[in-house]
Amino acid sequence: GTFTQDIFYSFKGYSHLLVLDVVHCGGKPGTLYRLTEDALIKDDKQRLSIHDIDLIDSLRMAEKLFGTKSELLVLGVEPKDYVTWNIGLSDDVQAVFPEFLALARKEIGEWLKRYGNGETRA
Question: Are the C-beta atoms of 38 and 11 separated by less than 8 Å?
Answer without folding.
Answer: no
